[in-house]
Amino acid sequence: MIERVELERIVHEKMKRVVERERIAHGKMVERERIAHGMIERVEWERIVHGKMKRVVERERIAHGMIERVEHERIVHGKMKLVVERERVVVVEWLERGNMYERVVEG
Questions:
Q1: CA dihedral (97, 98, 99, 104) positive or negative
Q2: Which of 57, 60, 67, 75 is deepest in the core (most CB within 10 A)?
Q3: Residue range 18-31: average pLDDT?
Q4: What is the full DSSP assignment across 27-73?
Q5: What is the pLDDT of residues 63-107, one digit of tens each?
Q6: Residue 85: which of 60, 54, 58, 40 has the closest Cα?
Q7: Cβ-contact 44, 31 below 8 angstroms
Q8: Is the pTM of this model over 0.70?
C-alpha cells in the first residue's frame, strides 16, 4: 500500500521543483526533491533493511547528455551506533542512438 503525497510543485519556464513523500506499509518514508531542466535531482529516504536503518541520498547532475548519480548510504548497526558510509558514482552516458549505459565507480 503506497500513499503518495505531493507537498509542493513550483513550475516556471525553466524550473520545476517537486517534493513528494511516500508512506509504505512498513513505515518507510520517501522524500524526493526534483529540480527539472536541469541540473540537480536529489532523492532522500530512510528504510529498514535486515533490521538496520539505512539512509540513502542520491544526487543527479544532468549536463550535456550525461547523468552522474551519487548514492550515499549511511547504515547504523544496532545499539553500537557504528556508522558505515559509502558513496558510489554511477555515470550514465548517452550513446549516439540515444541508448544509455552505466559506468559504476566505487569509492
A1: positive
A2: 60
A3: 45
A4: --EEEEEEE-SSSEEEEEEEEEETTEEEEEEEEEEEETTEEEEEEEE
A5: 444 444 545 555 555 444 444 445 455 544 444 444 444 444 444
A6: 54
A7: yes
A8: no
Long-range contacts of 55-62 (CB under 8 A, 24+ apart): 62/38
The total domain count for the chain is 1
Q: How far is CA 52 from the centre of its chain?
A: 19
Mean pLDDT computed over 54-70: 47
In DSSP terms, 40 is beta-bridged to 61
Q: Which domain holds residue 91?
A: 2-106
